[in-house]
Amino acid sequence: MINDGYTRRGVLATGLGAAAGTLLTSGVPARAAATDGNPLTLWYTRPAAAWLEALPVGCGRLGAMVFGGVATERFQLNEDSIWAGGPHTYDSPEALAALPEIRRLVWEDKWQAAQNLADRTFLGRPSEQAPYQVLGDLTLTFPGSAEFTEYRRQLDLTRAVTSVTYVRDGVRHTREVFASNPDQVIVVRLAADKPGSVTFQAAFSSPQSSGVAAAGQDTIALDGVSGDTQGLKGEVRFRALAKAQAKGGTVRADGGTLAVEGADEVTLLISMGSSYRSYKDVGGDPAEVAERHLVRASGQPYEVLRRKHVHDYQRLFGRVEIDLGTSEAVALPTDERIARRRLDADPQLAALYFQYGRYLLISCSRSPGYAANLQGIWNDSLTPAWESKYTININCEMNYWPAGPANIIECMDPLFDLIKDLSETGAKTARTQYGAGGWVAHHNTDGWRGTAPVDFAFYGVWPTGGAWLCLTLWEHYLYTGDERRLREHFPLIKGSVRFFLETLQTDPRTGYLVTNPSHSPEVGHHEDGGENVSICAGPTMDMQILRDLFEAFASASEALGQDPEMREQVLEARSRLVPNQIGHLGQIQEWQEDYRGDAALSRSRHISHLWGLFPGHQIDPRLSPELAAAARRTLQLRGEAGAGWSLAWKINFWARLLDAAEAYKRLSNLLVPARTAPNMFDLHPPFQIDGNFGGTSGITEMLLQSHADQVHVLPALPAAWPSGSFRGLRARGGFEVSLEWAGRVLTRGRIRSDLGRRLTLRTSKPVTVMLDGRPVKAERPEPTVLVLDTRRHAVYDITPSP
User: Fold this and answer.
1) What are 173's strand-pairing partners?
2) Which is the most buried residue in 255, 442, 531, 620, by most CB within 10 A?
3) Which ranges carry the Glycosyl hydrolase family 95 catalytic domain (predicted)?
4) pTM here?
């Protein structure tokens, strides 16, 4: 846990009212939560009856959904490398020969012909990617009556432990479950307040091709292989082990059943492994992986396993506290709070949602492990929605929006591993399909790191997915200043840039450099011959992404002292990209041409042409007010409809436009039953985790922004949060920010400078900056802007000016 000079109240106090115990001072809060428990808890008064009521635990590589049943307990299990199919290349051998004709047809506005030709020649082989798949279930069956009382099921976000307690046949039973990153197992603790009362049978099951067996006197095993897909044989073998360690009573494994009788308490360890070593190697030994982790964990007492897990988790989670106020609603179960649709009467629900997003990212994106997919790691199906893969035209990137500002940037490491893999497979796609160097990735990828266009040409012929991913590498540097990692990542950025330098086309009508073929993701611009067409040249999103990619390359090459000649070439190409344009409706144009009719009035949930507003910063109310007004008009034209992730993106858009009321409205619309499940999973519908992460990002953008070389505190603070505080949010430039506010105005804050860089601080009212109790010399270009040089690791106090 970072020591930022504060005396902390401890994580259990997080989320209580700012007027009571603040985040900047010590002391017990005077205004306690309406319940006796931890306000950072999801809790329920009955077992989960459906998957979207179960509670997720995870440690990056392993995940489980915990149902909290009484007669039976279900643990739905995932291991993050179980993908259908096996290693293969998706690239189309026909694409390169067809590319000139596709481009010619686009130049001539023969969109349907171009799109049809792309469908026949340019899509991957096969044209659908592989699904991420479930491993199976471990079910515990308990003897006794069907009656129970005093039931409570909960997930404690401060410790990443889910638990259930109830009274049955006069005995109080308790269970705890957590997924341990240090020990790479899922740990279940079963206990009762009467000796000899823990009795159950445990058995594995799976929809995969699989079998069960005993693996020792106290252990059972599930062995299986992933499913076939698109004519490709499933090749990922897996093993799951469950071992019971009992105090008192007996344990025996009989075939595929593990029986525990008359124990005082039991520690049940679940270990999983697969044969997946990489996207090109599935020759690993799943039994060895599962056994190795099980043996190590089983040699430690439960208390040690739990202590190590909590310490490891809190090292990340405990960096940030947030307090947006509280109300009597905090005393209600979580599902009832969501069902009330009253975020205005329950401000702590927003804080809970924010911290839940951080919990989920810590739980599904850790090393060792792979990047968070469309469902994080939690999936109960062989054929999940959208294959639960990586959609890189928005969803995968959205998963990682909170990592920097919400102070869990280590969670980006698995994403960087994914990008490195894609740079390898994408180099082959660049050569095979474009005849170009560098590397490219389109709108989707999977466990086999496919980079060719897939699905249909309407969705798939979009070449800037890899470019967007490369900008996450640059974001890491902006937050951390880690030159070693930048040097490691620079070849990936350079490879993406090289691809575009070699493939951008000069538009014969405008002279601009453009992508061709491409499209504005998942939005058509014309009905052509009765078919909705999206294929085009130089859509606005591509131009915005490439402007930032080329700028990032130039800045990185300068910081590292590398490739000065290429830097000049890149900056020249950047100057020739299509600029942001305002259309006939006052909107940001989505395409080069100002298309009329249905295209301009689309209500699509995709608003890709506002990428330059967020996550980019090419559109800014201060620096480009005309473009900002056009972005506002675009959002009005797109309407209120949208999936959970789309609403989450709109929170960020409105926050960047400094419109607190509209940002808060979208957050309120997100936290309703149609968009948020009882377990707080985001609903597309169905479940898609990017909305959770986008919502967490949106809350940070309402409280703190750090683009355009300045740190702007409380830029879009809604009226519903008149008083509050936060501790530990991060700003670009290596700053960690903590502050309190009342009457929607900053009352005091602290900024720690990790890198000693120049700070431009923007506030709503004039402030004074102090270091060691003395005023700091600062420039004041505007009444509410301070510019000062900072010292490395120094902590600066911020107070309102007299």
Assistant:
1) 166, 192
2) 442
3) 302-703
4) 0.96
